[in-house]
Write a structure and sequence with these properties.
- With 657 residues, this protein is an alpha+beta fold.
- Helix content is 50%, strand content 12%.
- The chain is built from 20 helices and 14 strands.
- A four-stranded antiparallel beta sheet has the order 2-1-5-6, with no helix packed on it. The protein has a four-stranded mixed beta sheet with strand order 3-14-12-13, with no helix packed on it. A two-stranded antiparallel ribbon has the order 4-9.
């Protein structure tokens, strides 16, 4: 009896777990079932352009407004920071009900300002972005026999110095029959069917549909303005409307109104819910060149392996030769020391500006940790394109939480350099919490003034600025101070050798050390420059980036290569009796940021040729500078910590009196 009872409990537990796994959907991607005739509401996002990179509100142009007024949709922190402004729209459908010739509205006669603004937005190739059930509207075009996919549709087009507006939209909504996951019915009858909670029959028996695709064809149609005088919104247009995307008719003229209309068609599709984003991930230009990237990774891994093997053999040979000598020979050898053994009394001498080094390393740990955790979660699907803004929100969350690690590492390094002295740990912790966020705040505030001046939706609202400052000082700063406190309590790392009172003179070098430091950044840059193209295209060309799993591999490879490059350079400096390795090890791997910034400039000149206006170029360079500083701190930290471990290990492996 007891065995049977236990078996039932285990069976119940397994079935519940199975049902929870079967019905599990990632945040923001849970399917919504609609019955036939249910209302479907289309939302609008900001107008965007790859020519200016400055988003504007949809209702900044003379488009139709909803009957109940404009309302903002609930947006998360990431959406606001990305410049998304999702609002309701007058476009309304009924599930599985085809409609045509639906009248929307007639704008008032265009005044001079509206006429000028509409022409400007058409010249700047602004796109209208519509959303239905969290799916952006997708548009298909043919070019030289190839099918191209685009999100959104252009505001209008210019043909022979005449401006035309797309005022009639033909929508196609792809739907799939809703499949209710019901474990009890699948697993059988008996006790299992009684204990597993099921959906009520009245719900599951009602046929339902889920939306798996949203397509739009924009047309320019010349309406009869007099024929719509007495029409209300959603009334049927009196004559047939032929939507031909290859011709244009509705020209934009001052003091003339624009009539808007639409039609919608529903089509049953074999596409299932998990695959509904596939069309967006196959967009033109977003195919990852897998062969090129894998080839690059193989070459970089091979080079890194060779460097590591040669390096380990060289150091091991030095140590083995020294350890095999007897005491008398060691004493004689100590008198004839050369290379890295000569700097034994200076190798752990405190660097210039030790507090700044500790602060930058602490911030680097925080940024690197944020990148690793965020990309890992994104690779697992928790930050998919379907969940707008979650990537930025997740980055902010993890960055704040990892303030503990930043404070701990910075203060412990500060105490190690000071041979255990705790004095000034509060100051170091405070500076760690303000250094990188302060730089970011300065850059973003400057760029925000430019966006405010352009009346762009990309400008961070003042209320959001207040929220960000509160998050900074109420969460990030206290966590960093807690980390600093833990670092002050932790034992400092003791140096294996004593430091002489007077520093040894560094011999003249054949090549300036800064040249080696700058050149060292080329190898880490080689690991990520291909992936960098796709990331830049995602940010600036409006393409969807989704290969986070591969990005995670590239990030791990970048960390390994940064560590190896810094180790090799540090060893080379010690071999030529240059004991000032602290900052050089940081910038050996951190110099990759210089090449990334140069690549960003190259991308601006050759890939964003159409970027118009000094404001757009300033925004691009400002955001690139912000990204480069973060990468410099993260990669520099990897190089410094690996070099510190190596130097500590190297000089604790030999005994030199």
């Amino acid at each position: 009896m007891e065995l049977s009872h236990r078996f039932r409990i285990w069976a119940f537990t397994i079935l519940v777990v199975f049902q929870s796994v079967y019905g599990f959907y990632l945040p923001g991607s849970y399917p919504h079932k609609y019955a036939v005739g249910d209302d479907l509401f289309v939302k609008v996002n900001s107008l965007t352009s790859i020519d200016t990179e400055i988003p504007f509100s949809y209702y900044s142009l003379p488009f139709c407004e909803p009957p109940n007024g404009i309302k903002d949709s609930a947006e998360n922190l990431g959406e606001l920071l990305m410049g998304d402004r999702i609002e309701n729209s007058p476009y309304k459908f009924k599930m599985h009900t085809n409609e045509s010739e639906i009248f929307m509205c007639k704008s008032g006669p265009l005044n001079a300002d509206q006429f000028k603004l509409l022409k400007k937005r058409i010249d700047e190739m602004y796109q209208v972005n519509l959303i239905l059930d969290n799916l952006p509207a997708i548009r298909y075009t043919q070019k030289e026999g190839f099918l191209l996919r685009w999100t959104g549709y252009p505001v209008g087009i210019k043909v022979k110095d005449v401006y035309y507006v797309f005022n009639h939209l033909k929508f196609k909504v792809l739907v799939h029959k809703y499949e209710e996951p019901n474990v009890a019915r699948v697993m059988g009858t008996g006790d299992g069917a009684e204990v597993i909670p099921t959906v009520a029959k009245t719900d599951s028996d009602v046929p339902g549909w889920i939306i798996v695709g949203f397509e739009v064809i924009p047309c320019s149609f010349m309406h009869n303005a007099d024929a719509v005088k007495n029409l209300k919104i959603y009334d049927k247009y009196p004559t047939a409307i032929k939507c031909d995307p290859t011709t244009v008719a509705m020209s934009v003229d001052e003091k003339k109104p624009i009539v808007f209309s639409y039609e919608v068609e529903f089509e049953e599709s074999d596409i299932k819910w998990p695959s509904r984003w596939d069309a967006y991930l196959k967009m033109e230009g977003s195919k990852v060149h897998w062969f090129s990237i894998l080839n690059s990774l193989m070459v970089i891994t091979f080079l890194a392996g060779i460097v590591l093997v040669i390096f380990l053999r060289t150091v091991r040979r030095d140590l083995t030769r020294y350890e095999e000598l007897d005491k008398e020979a060691q004493a004689q050898m100590n008198e004839e020391l050369s290379g890295w053994k000569l700097v034994v009394g200076d190798v752990f001498r405190a660097p210039d500006h030790p507090a700044l080094l500790c602060i930058m390393v602490g911030d680097g740990v925080q940024i690197l940790g944020m990148a690793v955790v965020t990309i890992l979660f994104a690779a697992l699907g928790f930050m998919s394109p379907a969940s707008r803004g979650t990537l930025i929100t997740g980055m902010l969350f993890f960055y704040m939480i990892l303030g503990i690690a930043a404070g701990y590492v910075a203060v412990r390094l500060w105490r190690t350099i000071g041979c255990g002295d705790k004095t000034g740990w509060v100051s170091v912790s405070w500076k760690v919490s303000c250094f990188f966020p302060g730089i970011a705040f300065l850059i973003l505030t400057t760029l925000n003034f430019l966006l405010w001046g352009s009346h762009s939706t990309g400008a961070i609202p003042f209320s959001l600025f207040v929220v960000l400052i509160l998050l900074w000082f109420c969460i990030s700063v206290p966590l960093t101070l807690i980390g600093g406190y833990l670092g002050a309590k932790a034992p400092h790392i003791e140096f294996p050798v004593r430091t002489n009172q007077i520093g040894r003179e560094i011999p003249a070098q054949k090549y300036p050390s800064w040249l080696l430091v700058l050149g060292a950044g080329t190898l880490p840059f080689g690991t990520l420059f291909i992936e960098l193209f796709f990331i830049m295209s995602s940010i600036w060309m409006g393409r969807v980036y989704y290969v986070f799993g591969f990005l995670f591999i590239v990030l791990i490879l970048l960390v390994v290569v940064c560590a190896e490059v810094s180790l090799v350079l540090t060893y080379m400096h010690l071999c030529v009796e240059d004991w000032k390795w602290w900052w050089k090890s940081f910038f050996a791997s951190g110099s990759v940021a210089i090449y990334i910034f140069l690549y960003s400039v190259n991308y601006l000149v050759f890939d964003l040729k159409s970027l118009s206006g000094p404001v757009s170029a300033t925004l691009y360079l400002g955001y690139s500078l912000f990204m480069v500083i973060a990468i410099m701190l993260a990669t520099g930290t990897v190089g410094f910590l690996s070099s510190f471990w190596f130097v500590h290990y190297l000089f604790s492996s030999v005994k030199l009196d």
